[in-house]
């Protein structure tokens, strides 16, 4: 749930590299229903996950880094940033916090100070394993209402939707024909639950 998905293949064994054209036009009601369902599900999952992480004094951003290091082992900040689709500066700030908390260690392989790798400390590994056990307890019964086929279909559908959204042109900053927003105007506020990274967790 918190890691990046592995590349998938279609039932015929081909990699789904090409995004097919839309098969049908959707009206406003259908679009609203899809959007509302995604937002409601996202809020519910985020709230439950944040409740678990809060008990372990972790933010979603810190959890993403810890979970990735638990999966991959030693890793550079550049590789972490690329795999989690966030900026290098953001990863550096998060790893600084984790090092200060004693959950992550930095090392210079072969004594080369130009190269910096980060890895879980013993305390960090224990923390990840404890959180994983609790998330299994919290989410297992919820996702268990879906059989394995529906779970696989859900993951595949969400991954496909993410690919379509990533490939689609960015929406216009203003309505067609409306005047440009004054430079001093404040940007629209985004609800906390919707401020997510490209992998789906808040930063």
Number of helical elements: 6
What percentage of the residues does DSSP assign to strands (E)?
Answer: under 5%
* Outline: globular
In round numbers, the mean pLDDT is 80
Level-1 CATH class name of the domain at 28-165: Mainly Alpha
Q: Roughly how many Å apart are the termini? A: 16 Å
CATH superfamily of the domain at 28-165: Winged helix-like DNA-binding domain superfamily/Winged helix DNA-binding domain
Order of helices and strands: HHEHHEEHH
State the low-pLDDT regions, or none: 1-12, 185-203
Write up what this structure looks like.
By secondary structure, the chain is mainly alpha-helical. It has a domain at 28-165: Winged helix-like DNA-binding domain superfamily/Winged helix DNA-binding domain (Arc Repressor Mutant, subunit A). Helix content is 51%, strand content 5%. The protein is built from 6 helices and 3 strands. It has helices at residues 28-55, 60-72, 77-84, 88-100, 122-143, 148-167; strands spanning 75-76, 104-107, 117-120. It has a 3-stranded antiparallel beta sheet. The longest helix has 28 residues, at 28-55. The chain is globular, with a radius of gyration of 20 Å. Residues 194-203 have a biased composition (Polar residues).
């Amino acid at each position: 749930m918190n890691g990046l998905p592995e590349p998938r293949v279609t039932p015929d064994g081909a990699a789904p590299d090409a995004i097919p054209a839309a098969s049908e036009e959707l009206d406003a009601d259908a679009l609203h229903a899809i959007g509302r369902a995604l937002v409601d599900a996202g809020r519910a999952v985020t709230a439950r996950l944040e409740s678990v992480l809060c008990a372990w004094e972790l933010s979603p951003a810190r959890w993403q880094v810890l979970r990735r290091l638990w999966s991959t082992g030693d890793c550079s900040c550049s590789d972490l940033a690329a795999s989690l689709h966030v900026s290098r500066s953001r990863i550096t700030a998060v790893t600084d916090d984790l090092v200060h908390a004693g959950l992550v260690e930095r090392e210079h392989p072969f004594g080369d100070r130009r190269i910096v790798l980060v890895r879980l400390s013993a305390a960090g590994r224990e923390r990840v394993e404890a959180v994983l056990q609790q998330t299994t307890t919290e989410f297992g019964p919820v996702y268990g209402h879906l059989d394995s086929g529906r779970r696989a279909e859900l993951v595949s559908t969400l991954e496909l939707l993410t690919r379509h959204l990533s490939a689609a042109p960015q929406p216009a900053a203003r309505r067609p024909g409306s005047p440009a927003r004054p430079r001093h105007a404040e940007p629209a506020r985004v609800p906390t639950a919707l401020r997510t990274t490209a992998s789906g967790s808040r930063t």
